[in-house]
Write a structure and sequence with these properties.
Elements: E1 4-5, H1 10-17, H2 20-28, E2 35-36, H3 43-50, H4 53-61, H5 76-82, H6 86-94, H7 109-116, H8 121-130, H9 145-149, H10 155-166, H11 180-186, H12 190-198, H13 222-229, H14 235-247
Helix pairs in contact: 1-2, 1-3, 3-4, 3-5, 4-6, 5-6, 5-7, 6-8, 7-8, 8-10, 10-12, 11-12
């Protein structure tokens, strides 16, 4: 079915409310599953935004375009990832959603999931990483996924850091002059700083202003003490990081 434009339609309304029976009836009457609003929002976008997996499944199985983008560059996968709807994310990936980030370069799904960090977002990130989402993709407004994660601390954020680093993310990748460790230091977050150091973040790295992470915090603060006390990593940690760097992120799954 080709994409067509309309205002908010009955099929959008059914998808928004999770009304599977209404969707079935509308499709039986010939209503197009790829009917888009003037902002290019499809019924599949609406269903995935609301987390209505059964509606999304019905739409996909009846020809909905899983890679269609809105005027803002959002795909259904972006919508589901941003809201932590894991079952929708898995459904879309299973039915041919392109490698995450290729169809929505301004807001890749892994970045939107990483920035939120709610309880279900680590599972979304895990599904995206499993399908080869680029854990080092750099977006002008967001940086890398690791930069997006390095925001005010939540336990889910720490889990997200583990997932992207296990997938081979560069813990020292700089965006807008700052590394993820600089961001965590500015936020005075000992938990984030500790997690990033564990995955190889360089505490002596200098940002675009010529400042080390320790220069951004009071020396007697918890983060300051952590950065000051963290000396040379144990030999086991240095070997682990060296091996990870050598094999590259595309082969980490075989380790």
């Amino acid at each position: 079915m080709s994409d067509v434009e309309a205002d908010w339609s009955p099929i959008h309304d059914a998808a928004f409310n999770g009304n599977v029976l209404c969707l079935q009836r509308l499709m039986a009457q010939g209503m197009c599953v790829n009917l888009n609003t003037l902002d290019k929002v499809s019924p599949l976008h609406v269903a995935c935004r609301q987390g209505h997996t059964n509606c999304a499944k019905l739409l996909v199985e009846n020809g909905a375009n899983v890679n269609h983008t809105t005027v803002d560059g959002h795909t259904a996968l972006t919508e589901a990832s941003a809201r932590g709807h894991v079952t929708c994310v898995s459904l879309l990936l299973k039915h041919g959603a392109t490698p995450p980030g290729e169809t929505s370069p301004s807001s890749p799904p892994i970045h939107t999931a990483a920035a939120r960090g709610r309880s279900s977002h680590p599972e979304c990130i895990e599904a995206l990483v499993h399908c080869r989402a680029d854990v080092d993709q750099d977006i002008d407004s967001l940086g890398s996924p690791l930069h997006a994660i390095s925001n005010p601390t939540r336990s889910e954020k720490l889990h997200c850091i583990k997932i992207v680093n296990v997938a081979g993310a560069d813990a020292n990748k700089s965006t807008s002059g700052d590394s993820p460790l600089h961001i965590a230091a500015r936020l005075s977050s000992p938990e984030l700083v500790s997690a990033l150091l564990h995955y190889g973040a360089d505490r002596l790295l200098v940002n675009s202003e010529g400042k080390r992470c320790l220069d951004l915090v009071p020396p007697d603060s918890p983060v300051g003490r952590l950065l000051r006390e963290t000396g040379v990593s144990p030999l086991k940690q240095l070997c682990r990081l060296s091996i990870r760097k050598t094999v590259g992120k595309q082969r980490l799954g075989f380790l």
